[in-house]
Amino acid sequence: MLIRLVILAALFGFLFGFDEGVIAGALPLITSTFEISASGEGFVTASVPLGAVGGAILAALWADSLGRRKVLIMCSVLFGIGAIASGLAQEEIALILARLLLGIAIGASALAAPMFLAELAPARHRGAIVSAFQLMITIGILVSYLIDLALEPLGAWRWMLALGAVPAFVSLIGIALSPESPRWLVMRGRREEAGSVIAAIQPDLDRKEVDHIVGDIAATHAGEPRTAPWSDFLSDHIRPLAIFAIAAFLLQQVSGINAVIYYAPTILGHAGFDGSSTQLTATVGIGIVNVVMTVVAMLFVDRLGRRPLFILGFIGSAVSLAVIAYAMNGQGSELATLALIGLFAYIAFFAVSLGPLPWLYMSELFPLAMRSRGMAMASVANWSCNFLVVFMFPVLVSYAGAAATFAVFCAFCVLGAVVAWLYAPETKGVSLEDLEQRELVAAQ
């Protein structure tokens, strides 16, 4: 049951990655079809993170009242409609609206799915299980790059976009047949149902152990409102957590990751790789590195811990981005190869650290009654910054050049390393309820 639910919830990460990555190969074809300007190109691409801002807000409003499962059902429907509408779009504005719809689905599921996974997972495996969401994002990106590579010679950008409806249908069937989060059930007073879900997820537990877990969850949240007021985020023990979660996502985005994901072929063109097929082939290589290193992150996040990986990720990303900026400042095949190596190294450090850890942190740090709203604040910061980076990237490159743009990303990663060293907490192996108690004690 646990494996099935993890795969299912992580499938929303696949949809997230597919609908993010597929635009990389489709965009040059779309631009020629609709004769889109540079700023229009930025907006078509950035419409997904813009829609995700609204999706995160909606998920915050509904995740506690409707439940994590129902929010994910609605996301599946929106993913399917958005993919089909993107493929059928006959003009630029229709495509933008369809991708805004996909963005809403991504923003809502990116909040609800990690929350669902964190609340299902045993403490000793929570890091790897929640990181499965990030792994599926990378797999979705890689699959979209492969589809782009296969369909680009045919100019079939509509099929590139519309194929996202297939995994959306699979996720809809799967989540409709799944149980609700046991912690949400306890929060709603449905303790017997919660016990049944926990027993199915952890069949090695006897009835007494299951009842103890349910009782521990209930006791930790006794007397709490089902959803805490926004003013509670100003309290002494929650405010630092909220600031850190938001900062983690802002620093993740200004490292430049989504500029690379959305514009990989364009970036490779600036690096000196000519020909769309060559650029897409190298882009697939980036996708493969992304997947492999995310698997490495899953293997080590519950062994080494969150904090060391977070610090290492920022330092490694900063060095890699410095190499990219240096290589793009000149010309020649050797520098083009150096830029590609730098891109591979950057993706590797990001995937093992900066990719999964902000999602994991935001699903762990907030108390149950504040989890959906706390995660929403972090998600809104994430998607707002994502939109700005993706929208501004082609404009910055056209005015300042690719080398200067990557130098800016490098500087932000240096800042991220300092912030991680000073403020990143360690949460490995601690139950969500024990984390809440630890935070309360630390604030007293």
What is the name of the CATH superfamily?
A: MFS general substrate transporter like domains
- Kindly name the structural category: mainly alpha
**Number of domain units:** 1
Name of the top-level CATH class: Mainly Alpha
Level of helix content? over 70%
Cα-atom radius of gyration? 21 Å
Terminal CA distance: 40 Å
Uncertain runs are 440-444
Overall pLDDT confidence: 82
Beta content comes to: under 5%
From the 3D coordinates, which CATH architecture would you assign? Up-down Bundle
Biggest beta sheet attributes: none
H and E string: HHHHHHHHHHHHHHHHHHHH
Shape: globular
What name does the CATH topology carry? Answer: Growth Hormone, Chain: A
Query: How many distinct helices?
Result: 20
- Based on DSSP secondary structure assignment, what is the total number of beta strands? 0
Describe this structure in words.
The longest helix has 33 residues, at 368-400. This protein has helices at residues 2-21, 23-34, 38-62, 68-88, 92-120, 126-151, 157-162, 165-176, 182-187, 191-201, 207-220, 239-254, 257-271, 276-300, 306-328, 333-354, 356-365, 368-400, 402-423, 432-443. The chain has a single domain, classed as MFS general substrate transporter like domains (Growth Hormone, Chain: A). Residues 440-444 have low confidence and may be disordered. Helices cover 81% and strands 0% of the residues. The protein is built from 20 helices and no strands. The protein is an all-alpha fold and 444 residues long.
Task: Give a brief outline of the structure.
The chain crosses the membrane at residues 43-64, 71-90, 96-117, 129-147, 159-178, 241-264, 284-301, 308-329, 335-362, 374-393, 399-423. This is Sugar porter family MFS transporter. The protein has 444 residues and is mostly helical.
